[in-house]
Amino acid sequence: MARKRFTEEVRSRKREQILDAAMSVFENKGGLDALSFRSIAAELGVSYSTPYGYFSSKEDLVIALRTRAFRWMERLTEDAIQPSADPVRQLELLAAAYIHNGVARAHRYELMFFDLDSTDAAKNSLELRAAKRDALNVCTRVIASGQEQGVFPTKIDPLTASHIFWVSAHGLVSLQVAGQLVMGRDLDTLAPLVIHALRTGMEHYDPAAAPRIMVNQ
Q1: Computed from CA positions of residues 55, 73, 43, 17, in that sequence, does the dihedral angle turn out positive or negative?
Q2: Do 64 and 116 touch, CB atoms closer than 8 A?
Q3: Of 36, 56, 82, 100, which residue is 20 to 30 A from 188 by alpha carbon distance?
Q4: E-strand spans in 28-139?
Q5: From first to last of its 217 residues, what are the pLDDT tens digits of the chain?
Q6: Pick from 177, 193, 5: nearest CA to 100
Q7: How many CA atoms lie within 13 A of 164 on its CB side?
Q8: Is the CB of residue 51 less than 8 Å from the CB of residue 41?
Q9: pTM as predicted
């Protein structure tokens, strides 16, 4: 029994080493086009067949990398809110960390969202779905805590509010990475304004007054 546990631990460690190498290839050597089991093996200095012992296909590997990227963002935002117990400040710190790290590690952020086919395997991956949920849940928990403390209004539910924060932060990161903030306002100017607008917007949210617009017809 002890031997079996040790083997599982070794396999888990080897799998993480392969993912480390895969992330390095993805971020530093050309993204998905450069990512292959052969390039990963070269990065690790092992036989090209070694990664096949841990991942059944490139798609399987990419799903694991995407999961890791969402866990990375979850960890960064979780760490960002630790210095403060004030939900308002936590929300500001969380949004700033999301925007800053999404821009600073654009390739890793790209792995989370851009130019990846939505395959059945990705849709059915419980690990990927959990990682996405947990990354967003950091913001949801901050808002829920603020509502419980009477700091945030309760007219809007925490999950909806965190989605709005997410959409806005994602938009800023995407525009900055794409080089589209060229109309007279830059990221440093817009980021705190967006965070402030979202924060104060919760105070005036009225679900009855929200427009009924169908965008997916």
Answers
A1: negative
A2: no
A3: 82
A4: none
A5: 444 455 778 888 889 999 999 999 998 988 888 898 999 999 988 888 888 888 888 889 999 999 999 999 999 999 999 999 999 999 999 999 999 999 999 989 988 886 555 567 777 789 999 999 999 999 999 999 999 999 998 888 999 999 999 999 999 999 999 999 989 999 999 999 988 888 888 877 777 776 666 655 5
A6: 177
A7: 18
A8: yes
A9: 0.85
Position of tokens 């849940």?
137
Q: Which of 102, 77, 101 is nearest to 90 (CA)?
A: 77
One-letter amino acid at 107 equals H
- Residues for the chain: how many in total? 217
**CA gyration radius, the chain:** 20
Q: Which two tokens stand for residue 14?
A: 């080897």
Q: Is 209 exposed, middle or buried (0-12, 13-18, 19+ CB in 10 A)?
A: exposed
Q: Residue-wise over 170-196: b if at least 16 C-beta within 10 A, else e?
A: bebbbebbeeebeeeeebeebbeebbe
